[in-house]
């Protein structure tokens, strides 16, 4: 079903208005919470919690996608490497100086694998 230009403009306007509202409401709350968020960001348990959430969620999403339509091995390897880097960073398997680099690289690899999977899904 093709959308009309007017419908796209309406949807765009609604989306922008919603984003503006969220920005106006959330920014003061976020600014007030920054000291707490900054303290939490340094805590090791936060990284472990994120990995505990990311591994099963990403694993399930990619496993399900692989069962429905065979995913390229490169995509699976990228996702696996990303998850491995996240785990290595969260449980301090890498030296402290490399922890951030490995964690960010893992996040980017995992996000890239999910984007690749998403684009494959929406092309078909």
UniProtKB/TrEMBL annotation:
Keywords for the protein's UniProt record, in alphabetical order: Membrane, Transmembrane, Transmembrane helix
Domain of life: Bacteria
Entry's Gene Ontology molecular function annotations: mercury ion transmembrane transporter activity
TM region(s), chain numbering: 7-33, 45-63, 75-94, 100-118
Protein name stated in the entry: MerC family mercury resistance protein
GO terms under cellular component: membrane
